[in-house]
Amino acid sequence: MDRTAWVAVILCVIALVLWEWWTVRQAPPRPLAITASPAPVSSVSPVTPSATTAPLASALAASTPTPAATIPSFALKTETLSNGDVELHFTNRGGGISEAILPKHKAEHEKRVSLNSPEHLPIGAMVENPAAPILTEYEMIRESDAVRLKQTTADNITIRKKFFFPKTSETKDNYLVELDVDLQNGGAKPYSSSGYFLGLGSAVPIHAKDFPSYTRLAWCVEGKAKGVDVGWFAGSSGFVGMGQRMARPLYQESVANAEWVAVSNQFFTTLIAPLTAKANSVWGRRVETELSPDLKVAAIEGALGMPGFELQPGQTTSVRFQMWIGPKLYHRLARLEHDEAEIMNFGIFKLVSQFLLNFMNWLHSAVRDYGVAILVLTTIIRVVLWPLQSKANQSMRKTAVLAPKMQELREKYKDDPTRMNQEVMKLYKQYGINPVGGCLPMVIQIPIFFGLYQMLGQAVELRNQKFLWVPDLSQPDTVAHLPVLGWPINIIPLCMAATQIWLMAMTPKTGDATQRRVMMFTPLIFLFICYNFAAALALYYTAQNLFSILQFYQNKKQPVPTLEKVAPAGKQKRR
Q1: 372 and 509 together in one domain
Q2: Contact status, residue 41 vs residue 252, Cβ threshold 8 Å
Q3: How far, in Å, CA of 455 to CA of 448, rounded?
Q4: Among 500, 508, 501, which residue's Cα sits nearest to residue 543?
Q5: Could you tell me how far CA 318 lies from the centroid of its own chain?
Q6: pLDDT tens sequence across 179-191
Q7: How far apart, in whole angstroms, are the C-alpha atoms of residue 99 and residue 87?
Q8: Which of 182, 241, 283, 533 is deepest in the core (most CB within 10 A)?
């Protein structure tokens, strides 16, 4: 390979290393040690049943080892609250939201998207230990615009909850829910609590092909989001004996002043932001759930820890929470006040992803088709980069013309690599060729590509959006499966690989024949990596390849560059 090709490869490797480094850097600090038996986190001490804590202990205590299997000793009751965008199902068991239905969003098999389920911790349930909660009975009252829940303990501690949709000027995409909690000490003794947890419910993948890394517990501190995904809980045999670890049942972590905590999958989230006091710990665990009768997937259940409080006899304390229970719509989340848009987890190229997502949605408002919007977006990007790419193509053509002279130098100095590199650089300088001129457009496109990858991977706007034969731009465009093997046939990635091979065939040949044959495997490697990506991303890259092919044809119509030595800078000045 010549120097230009090596620079291109090195830049790609550097970009991938930086990407991995950033991903690792976003991981949370090492969690506290967790034993197999449930225990409260160190930052939120349990409420012990003493004279001062007994009133709320009966409501918030945790002593049973398997909460999901616990059968309540009271009749289960439910209520529903809906605003057209989200339908909330409330339960008197634990006093929270057992399930949230999104009627405008479809899951597989024409089912409506559902967040959380009655088998998991209700959203908004107050517990001491979410690993083994006791979900006691609440009195539930349905009002015209709210659901109220009330519980009075034997020691006269009253817990009142009110769930309602806050008033808004938005005409659509209203997924905000507010929870107001009042705690009143009706007893004769002071009450002291060292903290409690508020349930987030669970997050489950919507599709069988959703990436597990998107099913995660996340939180935000000082405007920066961190989190763990379901892969954190799984055991690993490591690589060549290194990196082995046992499966971990729970995640518990003390955090300082978390603005919000959430559980999310690839496209939807349940996010809770405390309004009166910030969260001080997070909790999560991996659970298995059935996505279909023959498929089980890993889901995540979570809770946020809140600081303690004290109540004198007759005193009342109030806490408020704002919840987003719905799709990860960036344009709506970005307008909220607690950095909720960080749940998108766009990574190091966040600004690029945000701009491209907003631009794509703006284009969609004009063309009314997301597939067309992606093609228009690709066209605009290529038009902007066209002059730069033309210069890069011209530089590659000059390098190709110079190839015979470079081959002579390689043969002449094959036993002295240092001298050979010096002579090659001198040759570039003599003929005024920039060895990295062909790499600059690729370097510029690296943040665009990764920004699009992160954006298109989570853009809920693309779900169930059709384009030509593609039924859903957020999923691979599988049209059939190979007999016996069962491998999916995805048309757009195959077109992407074909256009890459076409493009490589048109690219001016540099380096020796063996190196060129090795480089021909690049489209196959890229096909393997991108084969099961969202159809939207494959569509973008295929369109980009077609524009590159068109530009090469246009550049080939120009005269073949001739080799002319450039006068040294000193002589040019004397002239």
Answers
A1: yes
A2: yes
A3: 10
A4: 500
A5: 34
A6: 999 999 888 888 8
A7: 8
A8: 283
